[in-house]
């Protein structure tokens, strides 16, 4: 079963057909030829999130398997909860969303939400290639106005993406789970050290958002080798890519391979907010 999206104008359920999504009040949204629906309201359409090159780089890098330990840990963290309705907020190109769906019951439905239509184009294509279209919806929307009904989800994924506690608490059922992945202090340290004169550590916030209780924290830390194009993809998929001077990027271009520290925090939070 697919998840039900709601109309961004009036909040009624959207009923999909071959080409559109329509609510009972007649608001209508086209399904793109790639299989996602753009539910961004006009004023938000200018905020595009990650661009096509970042998304392409992330897809190719993630497919190398370098972050598989994080996906494995996430699957293990949620399998006992046997979620039926999942939303992946800031889903990007859907590597974690689809990877997780493969580990859960075939009845599990997932809504992938991202502000970047470029990301959703890739995500919908991934779902189609991996025979997950019947279980998934992909919608362009902002984290602060999610096109999902109140209390409609059992599990929210929020990996390296903005967190909006109030909206998350609204769409999660009571006792539902929020699983967040964040970069820890030394994540990608050697990559930063190779590029910058003075690299800075990340400052992770290991705490539950308002309306949630922090139930478990895992630190997933390991080293991996990254070579050739993958090294450039790893840099291009990060927020540093657009903020780095060409002479610093040249240092990266001179490298053939690098051993890098991965350091992820996986935060399992439970919704405590009153209904
Ligand atoms: C670092 S990427 C992570 C993508 C994916 N979760 C992953 O780990 O591969 C952050 C994602 O958040 C999305 N994003 C940024 N601002 C957003 C917002 N206000 N609402 C929804 N998505 C947003 C970006 O477009 C991007 O795809
Ligand atoms: Zn409507």
CATH fold naming: Rossmann fold
Please bin the fraction of helical residues.
25-40%
Structural category is alpha/beta
Any idea what the CATH architecture is? 3-Layer(aba) Sandwich
Q: Please count the helical segments.
A: 8
Bound molecules: S-adenosylmethionine, zinc ion
Give the H and E element order.
EEEEHHEHEHEEHEHEHHE
Number of domains: 1
**Amino-to-carboxy terminus distance:** 26 Å
Report the CATH C-level class.
Answer: Alpha Beta
| Assembly of the depicted chains | single chain
Mean pLDDT: 94
What is this structure, in a nutshell?
The protein is α/β, with parallel strands linked by helices and 275 residues long. The chain has 8 helices and 11 strands.
What do these coordinates show?
The protein is α/β, with parallel strands linked by helices. The chain has one domain: Rossmann fold (3-Layer(aba) Sandwich). It has helices at residues 52-63, 68-79, 95-103, 117-129, 165-171, 189-195, 228-236, 246-253; strands at 15-16, 20-22, 28-30, 37-38, 85-89, 109-114, 136-140, 153-159, 172-183, 212-227, 257-271. The strands form two sheets. The protein has an eight-stranded mixed sheet, sandwiched between helices. A hairpin with a 3-residue loop joins strand 1 (15-16) and strand 2 (20-22). Helix 2 (68-79) packs across helix 3. It is globular. The two termini are 26 Å apart. The mean pLDDT is 94. It binds S-adenosylmethionine and zinc ion. The site of S-adenosylmethionine has 18 residues, from helix 3.
């Amino acid at each position: 079963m697919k998840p039900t999206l709601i109309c961004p104008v009036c909040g009624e359920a959207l009923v999909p057909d071959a080409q559109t999504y329509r609510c009972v009040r007649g608001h209508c949204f086209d399904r793109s030829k790639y299989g996602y629906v753009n539910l961004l309201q006009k004023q938000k359409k200018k905020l595009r999130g990650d661009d096509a090159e970042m998304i392409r780089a992330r897809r190719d890098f993630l497919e190398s398997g370098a972050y598989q330990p994080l996906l494995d840990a996430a699957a293990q963290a949620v399998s006992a909860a046997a979620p039926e309705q999942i939303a992946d907020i800031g889903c990007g190109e859907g590597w974690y969303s689809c990877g997780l769906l493969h580990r859960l019951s075939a009845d599990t439905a997932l809504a992938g939400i991202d502000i970047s239509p470029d990301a959703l184009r890739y995500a919908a294509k991934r779902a189609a290639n991996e025979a997950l279209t019947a279980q998934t919806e992909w919608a362009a929307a902002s984290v602060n106005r999610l096109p999902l009904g109140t209390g409609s989800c059992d599990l929210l994924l929020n990996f390296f993406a903005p967190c909006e506690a109030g909206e998350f608490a609204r769409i999660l059922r009571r006792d539902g789970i929020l699983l967040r992945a964040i970069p820890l202090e030394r994540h990608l340290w050697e990559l930063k050290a190779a590029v910058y004169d003075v690299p800075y550590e990340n400052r992770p916030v290991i705490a539950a958002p308002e309306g949630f209780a922090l139930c478990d924290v895992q630190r997933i830390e390991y080293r991996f080798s990254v070579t050739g194009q993958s090294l450039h993809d790893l840099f291009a998929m990060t927020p540093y890519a657009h903020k780095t001077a060409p002479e610093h990027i040249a240092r990266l271009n001179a490298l053939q391979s690098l051993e890098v520290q991965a350091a992820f925090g996986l935060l399992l939070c439970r919704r405590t907010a009153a209904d």
